[in-house]
Design goal:
The protein has 867 residues and is an alpha+beta fold. It is built from 17 helices and 44 strands. α8 runs parallel beside α10. It binds beta-D-mannopyranose. The site of beta-D-mannopyranose has 11 residues, from loops.
């Protein structure tokens, strides 16, 4: 009986499948990638060598052993010739008789970097000039049945850039373009080419101006009809009902009556159908439909990342002519900028399904100078690390690229909102018509590619250009003053054209009312346009670091949305060893200096370190201390921003990651090791935290909760001396509503110390709810350098069970900022850079292939008093 039911069920399922998905009578389309058999050479010179596609000239030269590792020591300097010459790539590929018989054949170039003439069987089929564009070429006439040759000639982006600059007539500000290092003197030509800004250098990056086929090439064969795009518009979404519209862009080479169906693949249900009349050329079909009680998409921490998969078919006489699929998440997501009384300003926060979201995250830069090396595994590791640090937003910064589809897919799946900059940063750009047209097409290509991702929260015009130029004030970065009246007016007009009309118009036309913000940071169009740092818009606060403000200033410089702030550190010694030799082990050595691109970076690190810590002599200890210092500063900022909720509703620190091994503001180094900062971010970004701030002799203790339900329990304040003796304890009840920051206690520091010297104790703040520890934090009452610490001795036992390995650690005295490591190995510790109190046992898991015995004999640690 049960079997029968099952069989019936299966038959019904099959009927249903047939009903909604009539058999494909004949192949209607075929996609073939052309990523194999490639060769390359310097144009017209030498032998053809094997090449990897997608790839870059630099990585092809490296794998053919024609250059050394570009990131090793100062090799970058020897490789500056590569961008001054031309390169060519070629391959052959076969077209089968079946493929040749299709009515249509198109070649799609998903990424050509950058000035590329493409020849198919000797015919010029495309002259590309924009790295960010997707190029689609009709090749039906040029393809041969059997063997075909594809050849791509890459012109030097530098020679082209110089030529464009000359035609433009004036140089434009391009502060981060390291033209001097590239042998070009002051000619920062990056701005004339639509190519990732950071390729020309940045204050955390080297100068490698690449060329190559950086994303794949495909040939698409099809008959009758093709679905170019499927856009699931979401005009109105509530928990009860989602009003959606499937917008289908078709291209047909056939005519006649047809049926368009939309199927919700999660329950294989046809949600709507429409009869259409096909005509040759392009046509758009809109199919509205409703989903009752939709499973909404939420960010990491707020709920599930529910996704829907919709399929669209175009059918004629029971035969599927074309089919397309689209994954999306159903949600309402808006940037809320509302006038409010607070400081006479305007709110700046994202509202997701009616819930104000406090954004926690970082700014993201490309993960490698050679983009095709950023594999799916790298993206996965990156987004896993983002989730592990309790983040819910990344800002994809404008000096990089529109990321790979894989990146946004992972952000959808893991609930990470994306603030997407358009690709303009810290420079002014030309306004020639051809440039504008290129920018427009690049924006359309990428907005259309990315608009279905539920993770996309905001499109932003550029990074820091509004604040740098400031046409109507006497401030800014001194750029406008270099030009005569006409030049200045022209440059500003070109700026306004791109960021105040072209890009917002693309967003309006090609999205479903997505939010657009012209520049980051900005006060807001129409009000106090340029960022004033306090009452409206978003803020890049660089008073700490560039402005030499003390870490304490993070407390007072809190705006509505902190989209950048940061502090540098070095990678850990195990990482440094990978790009140096022992002779380089000095932060001022030539090699270490080549891997520090921030102006005055080392001096700033030292200066800040001296304010809070004893500055160590030893190289290894200095690297480690730089990370401890960075984590201390940025933790203070993250907590200050969260305490200021709801006035402040977002905190994104500069920067999540690195594109090569370097001293930088990152929390994760190029080799994907967590710095002390990433561990600190994980703690500071937890859904519920307890955070304190000392002011006027009192300790304000706050509970900050991003949870959507109230939290209550007991707050314990326990004061320990450095031998682990409890000197004082206070317990008070606390209770906070959902999604708030609240000061729950404000005791006098004197009362907490209860007679102890402020240099002798630490207070442990614990929130308990029944038996559960909800949150924990520490408060010190003196700077680390002034604490009466003495050298601790740690006892470490290594354990292993069920494939898990962990350390069991105790200490005889307070050990501050303890970093565990094993020389010569890269491994992950579940906790690191932590304070270890005497009398407590700490369990630290390790991810490593080393055996228990190997760990026991090799484990080492550093702390504040190490050398
Ligand atoms: C911000 C960023 C980057 C830069 C960083 C550190 O302004 O937008 O341009 O790398 O500061 O200086």
């Amino acid at each position: 009986m049960r079997k029968m039911k099952l069989l019936m069920g299966t038959i019904c399922m099959m009927c249903l499948m047939v009903l909604i998905n009539p058999l494909y009578m004949s192949a209607q389309n075929e996609n073939v990638s052309i990523n194999t058999g490639w060769q390359f050479r310097q144009a017209g010179l030498g032998d053809w060598l094997p090449a990897t596609v997608p790839g870059t000239v630099h990585t092809d030269l490296l794998s053919n052993k024609k250059i050394e590792d570009p990131f090793y020591r100062t090799n970058e300097k020897k490789q500056q010739w590569i961008d001054k010459v031309n390169w060519e790539y070629r391959t052959t590929f076969k077209v089968t008789p079946q493929q040749f018989s299709y009515q249509c054949g198109e070649m799609v170039f998903y990424g050509l970097d950058t000035y590329a003439d493409v020849y198919l069987n000797g015919q010029l089929i495309l002259s590309a000039d924009n790295m960010f564009r997707t190029w689609r070429v009709d090749v039906k006439k040029d393809l041969h049945e059997g063997s075909n040759e594809l050849r791509i000639y890459f012109h030097s982006p530098i020679v082209k850039g110089l030529d464009l600059q000359e035609k433009h007539g004036v140089m434009l500000p391009a502060g981060n373009d390291q033209s001097e290092n590239g042998g070009l003197g002051p000619n920062g030509v990056s701005v004339f080419t639509r190519k990732a800004g950071y390729h020309y250098g940045w204050d955390w990056g080297p100068r490698f101006v690449t060329s190559g086929i950086w994303r794949s090439i495909e040939t698409e064969f099809w008959n009758n009809v093709k679905i170019d795009h499927l856009f699931i518009r979401q005009p109105h979404v509530t928990a009860k009902e989602a009003e959606l519209t499937a917008e289908v862009n078709l291209r047909a080479v056939t005519t006649g009556e047809a049926t368009v169906k939309v199927i919700d693949r999660s329950d294989n249900r046809v949600v709507t159908t429409q009869q259409i009349t096909l005509s040759t050329g392009q046509q758009t079909v809109n199919l509205p439909f409703i989903i009752q009680n939709p499973r909404l998409w939420w960010t990491n921490g707020l709920g599930k990342q529910n996704l829907y998969n919709f399929e669209v078919t175009v059918e004629q006489n029971g035969k599927v002519l074309a089919q397309g699929e689209q994954t999306t998440g159903i949600r309402s997501l808006h940037l809320i900028r509302k006038k409010d009384a607070k400081g006479n300003g305007e709110s700046f926060y994202f509202e997701l399904n009616g819930v104000p979201v406090f954004a926690k995250g970082a700014d993201y830069i490309p993960s490698d100078n050679f983009l095709p090396r950023v594999t799916k595994e790298v993206y996965k590791k990156t987004i896993d690390d983002v989730v592990a640090a309790n983040m819910n937003m990344l800002r994809v910064w404008g000096g990089g690229v529109f990321e790979d589809d894989e990146f946004y897919k992972l952000c959808d799946e893991k609930g990470i909102l994306i603030w997407q900059d358009f690709l303009f940063a810290c420079s002014m750009y030309p306004g020639e018509e051809s440039f504008m047209e290129s920018v427009k097409q690049e924006a359309i290509d990428n907005v259309v590619r990315m608009r279905n991702h539920p993770c996309i929260a905001l499109w932003c015009g550029n990074n820091e250009i509004d604040t740098a130029w400031q046409e109507d004030t006497n401030s800014g970065w001194g750029w406008k003053e270099q030009y005569n009246k006409e030049q200045r007016a022209q440059i500003w007009a070109d700026y306004q054209k791109i960021f105040h009309s072209l890009l917002p118009e693309v967003i309006k036309e090609y999205t479903d009312g997505d939010d657009y913000w012209p520049s980051s940071p900005m006060g807001g169009p129409g009000i106090n346009q340029h960022a004033d740092g306090k009452t409206s818009g978003d803020v890049h606060y660089w008073g700490v670091w560039h402005g030499l403000n003390k870490f304490e200033e993070f407390e007072t410089h809190v705006g509505r949305f902190m989209s950048e702030y940061g502090f540098q550190s070095f990678p850990e010694f195990e990482s440094v060893k990978k790009y140096t030799v022992p002779a380089d082990y000095n932060i001022e050595s030539e090699v270490m200096a080549a891997h520090q691109r921030g102006s005055g970076g080392n001096l700033l690190i030292k200066k800040y370190m001296g304010w809070d810590y004893k500055v160590p002599e030893g190289f290894e200890q200095f690297l480690y201390m730089s990370q401890v210092l960075q984590a201390r500063g940025i933790k203070a900022a993250m907590e200050a921003h969260r305490r200021a909720k709801p006035y402040c509703m977002g905190t994104l620190y500069w920067q999540l990651n690195d594109c090569w091994p370097v001293a930088s503001w990152s929390g994760i180094d190029y080799y994907r090791n967590w710095k002390a900062l990433h561990y600190a971010a994980r703690e500071a970004y937890k859904p519920v935290i307890v955070s304190s701030y000392e002011k006027d002799g009192k300790l304000g203790i706050y509970v900050i909760s991003d949870e959507l339900k109230p939290v209550k329990g007991i707050l314990d304040v326990e004061v320990f001396d450095f031998d682990g003796k409890l000197r004082n304890k206070m317990s008070l009840p606390f209770s906070v509503a959902a999604n708030v920051s609240k000061e729950v206690a404000n005791p006098e520091v004197k009362k907490i110390l209860n007679g102890s010297d402020e240099k002798d104790v630490v207070a442990i703040l614990t929130l308990r709810s029944g038996d559960e520890v909800v949150a924990m934090n520490e408060a010190y009452f003196a700077k680390p350098k002034d604490l009466n610490l003495t050298k601790p001795t740690l006892t470490i036992n290594v354990n292993e069970k069920d494939g898990k390995k962990w350390l069991e650690v105790t200490s005889d005295k307070l050990a501050c900022s303890v970093m565990f490591y094993i020389p010569g190995h890269q491994l992950f510790f579940s906790d690191n850079y932590i304070d270890i109190l005497p009398g407590k046992t700490y369990h630290i898991e390790m991810t490593t292939d080393l055996s228990k015995e190997e760990i026991s004999s090799q484990i080492k640690y550093r702390h504040l008093l190490s050398e």
